[in-house]
Amino acid sequence: MKKISRRDFLYCSAGLLACTTPAYALWPFSDKTESPSIRASIRGKVFKGDAPDKLWKWSHEGFSYKKLKNSRVMCNICPNHCVLSPGDRSACRSKVNLKGTLYSLAYGNPCAVNTDPVEKKPLYHFKPGSKAFSIATAGCNFRCLNCQNWEISQSRPEDVRHHELFPGDVVKEAGRADAQSIAYTYSEAVTYFEYMIDTARLARDANLHNLLISNGFINTPPLLELCRVLDAANINLKSFRDAVYQQLNGGRLQPVLNTLKTLHEQGIHFEITTLIVPGYVDDEDMLKQMCGWILAHIGPDYPLHLLRFFPQYKLDRLPPTPVSTLVRFRELAMEEGIHYVYPGNVPDHEGNNTYCHNCKKLLVERKGYYIPEYHIEGNQCKFCHTIIPGVWV
Ligand code: SF4
After folding, report:
1. Which residues in 169-319 belong to E strands, given as ranges?
2. Pocket of ligand 1 (CB under 6 A)
């Protein structure tokens, strides 16, 4: 294993979402003004000849892949559909082709482990005040210019210091931490799918909840398999423009929309997070179009978190999102018809509270991760008995 720096060791590291807090010199989104050096492309970019010579202890055969001619393999977990020749490494850095078989190198070796309040994911309508045992391995299928967890998301599993926690160990540790859920989070859970699904199956058997915190860039068949043991998700809808997805994140919009529709159809509670990156995502027309799509395809009840951006990673010269922009966008999204819209990374703003969408009374007061007031009975508003979307008990 390569010698690591202290920075690489992120055990007990804190973080909201992988790739959610960003930045860059005020570089408004436009093909004319974009700096070519910071384009976040990833598709088809596998690492030729970068696989290790032999497997290590934390290897596991890929969950879904196809064997092709000449010992090549194609991973079917996410829309990148990496095609690897023997000795190649995937675009997400966590999978390799060894002698014609696809292996994950991220199975049982989380580099970030922590117990978080569920509100930190953020999930505001799922078991408020409960704890989520949170894990992540190295690797990501995006290249967000603003990633807040780039030290792990843009690393190979061999290059980061990690713990040995196989699926059964994760479930035991979650119980020991008095957590009600296990969250697959921080980097990108889709890229450690094999580890996640085996852990999630054991967690379900142990009456623990499974939370997916993800960019949503996953193919539908593996997602459906995961839905069998999934309790809630937060999906990062990074923009509502495919061109921004390609430029800022190295991804595509449509597969993420497909994920939202699939979760909706499967009856999984989820919340949506959008980081309002100045110059890229702070576009009122885009927000209106996004709300229109949400209302037309999945309805008004899924909470929407609009997060404040702070300078980060390759966008470290952009200014933070003005709080006034967050407040205006929250009002706009609610005017468009979304029932629950929260401003993220704006502590103590009253918009962090939950108000009944019918009678407008305060239901859940939030002071950071502390909940001083709570007025939901069962799943209903205590005052007008409207059903409040979410999983409350
Ligand atoms: S999960 Fe990783 S290996 Fe599989 S297709 Fe996506 S980027 Fe490629």
Report:
1. 181-184, 209-214, 232-236, 269-276, 304-308
2. 75, 77-78, 80-82, 90-92, 95, 141, 190-191
DSSP 8-state secondary structure symbol assigned to residue 30: -
Per the domain annotation, does 181 fall within a domain? yes
292 and 392, same domain (yes or no): no
266-285 pLDDT per residue, tens: 999 999 999 999 999 999 99
**In degrees to the nearest 10, what's the CA dihedral of 367, 125, 151, 9?**
70
pLDDT, one tens digit per residue, over 153-165 is: 999 999 999 999 9
Q: Which residue, 34, 315, 26, 273, is CA-closest to 148?
A: 315
Which whole number is the average pLDDT over 121-125? Answer: 97
Question: Is 28 within the bounds of a domain?
Answer: yes
Range of the domain at 245: 6-36+107-352
Of all protein residues, whose CA lies closest to atom 5 belonging to ligand 1?
81
285 and 222 belong to one structural domain = yes
Atom 2 (ligand 1): residue with closest C-alpha? 92
Task: Give the three-class secondary structure for 74.
Answer: strand
Per-position DSSP letters for 40-70, written without gaps between them = ---TT--BTT-S-SS--TT-EE-SSEEE-GG
Exposure string of 265-281, with b = 16+ CB inside 10 Å and e = fewer, is: eeebbbbbbbbbbbbbb
Same-domain check for residues 271 and 367:
no
Pairing of strands 269-276, 304-308: parallel
Same domain membership, residue 163 and residue 207: yes
Mutate to test the pocket of ligand 1, among 50, 60, 74, 95 (most ligand atoms within 8 A of CB): 95
Q: Rounded mean pLDDT of the chain?
A: 90
Residue 76 CA, ligand 1 centroid: distance in Å: 7
Mean pLDDT to the nearest integer, 251-269: 98
Listed in sequence order, the residues at least 6 apart from 108 whose beta carbon sits closer than 8 Å to its beta carbon are 57, 58, 60, 164, 165, 166, 167, 169, 195
